[in-house]
Design a protein that fits this description.
Blueprint: H1 2-33, H2 36-51, H3 64-68, H4 73-76, H5 82-85, H6 101-114, H7 118-142, H8 147-159, H9 164-168, H10 173-195, H11 198-214, H12 221-237, H13 241-263, H14 277-283, H15 286-295, H16 308-330, H17 334-342
Length: about 350
Amino acid sequence: MLMRKKMTTDSSPSLKTIQTVSPVKNAFIDRFESQTIWHLVLLVLLPFFIYIKVSGYQFISNMDDFSIIVQHIDFFTHFKNIVNAFKCDAFINQHGDFYRPLQTVSFMLDAFIGGDNPWIYHFSNLIYHIISVIAFYFLLKLFRFTHITSFLAALLFSVHPLLSSAVSWIPARGDLLVGLFGVLLFITFIQYLNSKKLVYILLHFLLFMFALFSKEIAVLFPLFLLYYYFLVFQDKIGFDKKKMLLFSIVWLVPLIIFFLLRSKVVIGTPPSYILGVNPFIYNLPTIPIVFSKLFLPFQLSTMPLFDKSYTVIGSLLLIGVMIMFVKFVKQKHWIAVMGFSWF
């Protein structure tokens, strides 16, 4: 009995300590959760100091950055060629298979600052990445995620090794730009639905134009925006024909302009190794590989490396994700479904 009493007495201070520390920790977490300024500071500084070393990298002689920039530096150093950027392909040829004029214009801005010095091109990639991280943070908050969840997700996005090639490889500029403009496109879309301010429609129009001229994959963005409207937003206020008609025009006009200008550069059907059933089937193994490296970020490369072990691991993970996907559909967690689809 004496021993039992002593144990009870000795344990009391620790219980008091736990009860004292826990509210302090909770208060700190609650306070940090609402500190948007500190969230932004960390979202800028952490990726900056992790990736700043890329500014010391060189051009890669046997890859696209050499054939795009080094071999055409005279083109990039003259702003008079901005108009010509919309008349040539991504490799500064009169005709080609990839039409990304805004990527070309961004390289012109780099050349104006640093000429043929590779540091400015790498540094610009980092800046675009950081801006994308900040935009992604605000988009998650618009999706009604908590402040701390939005911060942690954006922080993971900012430093995840899977994205390192997009930041460190200069020709990934098109991916960085289309990602940035895609996120901003969503932000302006939601802001207009919430506020009905004309300025968001005008910004949305410009951003969709910028996204299209950054990389062709942007043609899919209206599908995700419609998905969000019909499965997420419409449940709150109902269907609005006028808004959808307005956005249809806002999307259609840039698409027409884009395809008209693109048709003068991309003439004919792209070769079978770029577009078609064969390249689709050939590249299917990259899906489980990339997915496995989302969780096991090792042996990363700019171009996908086919590996049996990563394919098996990724396939098993995909099965688990598909099960979750079906579960989210049944529970009508449409934001989660859209996230998986976007990925």
